[in-house]
Amino acid sequence: xxxxxxxxxxxxxLRHGFTDASAAERLLxxxxxxxxxxxxxxxxxxxxxxxxxxxxxxxxxxxxxxPGPTARRxxxxxxxxxKPLRDRLLGVLGASAALADHLARHPRDWEVLVTYEPRDxxxxxxxxxRGLAEAADPVALRVAYRRCLLSIAARxxxxxxxxxxxxAELADLATATLRAALAxxxxxxxxxxxxxxxxxxxxxxxxxxxxxxxxxxxxxxxGEAADDxxxxxxxxxxxxxxxxxxxxxxxxxxxxxxxxVDANLRPEGRNGPLVxxxxxxxxxxxxxxxxxxxxxxxxxxxxxxxxDLGQEYVDALEPMVWKAAERDNFVADVQKMRRRVVENIPxxxxxxxxxxxxxxxxxxxxxxxxxxxVHGRTDATLRSGTTLDALQALAAGGYVGRADAVQLxxxxxxxxxxxxxxxxxxxRRTHLVPEDEADLRRLGRSLGLRTDPVTELIREWxxxxxxxRRLHEKLFYRPLLDAVAQLAxxxxxxxxxxxxxxxxxxGYADPAAALRHLEALASGVTRKSAIQRTLLPVLLGWFAxxxxxxxxxxxxxxxxxxxxxxxxxxxxxxxEGAAAENLARVLSAGRLAPxxxxxxxxxxxxxxxxxxxxxxxxxxxxxxxEILAAAGRADNAEDGVRAxxxxxxxELFRTAAADIVDSYGTDTKPxxxxxxALVDRVGGAVSDxxxxxxxxxxxxxVRDGWGDxxxxxxxxxxxxxxxxxxxxxxxxxxxLFVHEPREGVAEREAADAANKVVSEMRRLLQIPSADPPLLxxxxxRPEGKSGPLVxxxKSYEAYYRRWSLVWESQALxxxxxxxGDEDLGRRxxxxxxxxxxxxEGLGEDAVRxxxxxxxxxxxxxxxxxxxxxxxxxxxxxxxxxxxxxxxxxxxRHGWAEPGLRTTRTxxxxxxxxxxxxxxxxxxxxxxxAWVLATRVRNAVMLVRGRAGDTFPSESRELAAVGRYLGYGxxxxxxxxxxxxxxxxxxxxxxxxxxxxx
Length: 997
Prior knowledge:
The chain has 997 residues and is mainly α.
């Protein structure tokens, strides 16, 4: 060959899509292709394939495998003369290395591609059964199966059949293969065959008539005794036949395997018997089956064995399938199953997963199946096992918007085509998009993308997965809006009854009210209505994930009614990525946050990503600065305190909203894994806010009554949870009031001023208004309720020197100045430090007294009728147990261990561990119980809008507490069990450390 010719051929090969032109030249110069190497028809045909290099290599191997020159000449002549064969054969060789291997092993099988008659274009089960009829053993069955597969692949790659038709043909071939395998098994064991009736029910993609090239074939077996045979013996015979049939298909031979037959969708899965009677199946599904098992039965179809028994099975179970949507937590169970599938994908593969990844095939299938189960109860037209047929029926009935259905249909077809071509290459079961450039190029070209195959493929793939991700959730909700908004003329709408069915299935307890809210929000032609119609499909989905979707939707309507005419509100929800989801979580999580928001709806701006600080808690200094400035601008104390309470309400909402979002998680922000951090964040934020509010209130009262200077120095000492920076949403502010007359001021005048300040502060902070009250509790003062409300520093000193009891020393462990005169606060702490950290620690008498007080409190203070094991404060292993244990360590060792001199429980526990006063495992158990009990109290306040120390008894409220703590629908019992287990372990540590047991 001359250099010029070589150069010319080399260039032509590159132009026709060859990537290794040198190797292609050598193959074209081979003896086998000598007669046709210059034929332009061959080069054009090779260039039209997905991978010209692979097609040419396969062709040479096929020619080499022919039994002689005559056979080789026959193949070449037919190839050049007959375009149908040329397109089919080279198309297969360019797409599938595995089928090229088959043709090299069985060189005459190319002849099945020659015939091109109408009956060959769309074969069914009967045609495939004829193609497998001569297979007398498992090896011959594999060869015949591949021969049939060859014709399916040829029609596929040439575009004679579309992806749905190809999937249906693959399912029909699987049906014929199962029948042939069962026939072989029966021929090997005629006694077993005579003793039983056995039906094979196809499930999954085979049952749905939408099989892949390489997939497990899911089946369920039903067996009955033949005639008067013994049932137990008949079932043993049926089991042997079923097992043999599965091995015939699954085992690897010299011709490889066909595909695995998977019977794990049967009752009890792999732990259950392989074959059951029909009555046994019915008993299981009536009593034990889970929601996903009815979802799987959507695709059940008898395919082999006794046809009458198979039909009896389907007829008997069908009514149960269409009642599945009436089960408790039906939608939540289906969606949870979908999330679990995604979570189990290895992180390195999730972005390449065509089937299971976000925006993948399974998203479309789950969405369609869910809608079928909801509406198929009353509309038999929806009862198809085939995804695309069911989607078309849903659109025709108005259950899915037509435009959405068209987009999903296009996306599903493209993704299934990708999956088919990926599997066809090696005939391997995979759903991962390849990473290799050559594989991506072949894949893109096989789908008709020829200009820049790799770039075009990735762009279209991402575009279609994006469509699926955007639509698969909205699919449930958008038709609800069309049903009430009366838009889109000519569109078939969801009927009122169908809309109620769907809302009930999604967890709405009052679907009629929900439809009224939707109508009010979505009807009309205003800009507000248009934006809300865009937002609501997504919001409804987020509401449905909560324990109380009805409340979420009602609260959204209230907020929208209040702010709907405010331009920034709708712009915030539309344009700020996090705002809409944050709002949905907050509005459906309970009563507290929505109540705070309704009192001043403009606080919704905090939920965005913008400059308003978002949901990050603000520090005490910043809060004090704002509140003091607001109080300073007021004309009188009442106005000043009103301003302070307004800031407090807004900041309580910020804290509650952040807590809810962190606890629930969002699409872009995972659930906060560190539960202790959540507790610390809430405790710190509410405590700082309370201190700042008291500081502002003090400033307003003093300014109104005395101008700039009060006749006496005055400070408030935080006690209990307040001093410990551990306040919850419903906590009172425990304080001590300390004053010290200024120089030249009489003690009576100073005391009167201090008492008047306290009285006025308490009054103003409790005046009924739109803002929540702040209750000040001074019961921890010397002599309790019998003692004076305010004392001088000297009075405290005298009392503590002479009368102080051990419980007061314990209470003072939490003492910390929170508002007022800083110097006086510092001197008070210096006064009480020797009491709370006594030199050489507590004596044994004092330790016994503390233990006696604790035991008495456990027996006397628990509310009547309360379950002690579920009482977060006084129950075993609850807050009191952990706090008293930590405080006893502080009283005994605080004098020697500086780390223990803290008002915060978790800090003190960590310091005690560092000091070796308890083991790390014991500390972790106590910390876990304290954090959990605190979280439960916070959850109860968020859900009910009022404080409580026990779990709610009402089921929706209990479910909402569970949701806050990370438990899905239907798992309230698991939450209570986990709480009892955690506190039981903590109580065992308390018995040892506190009581010395």
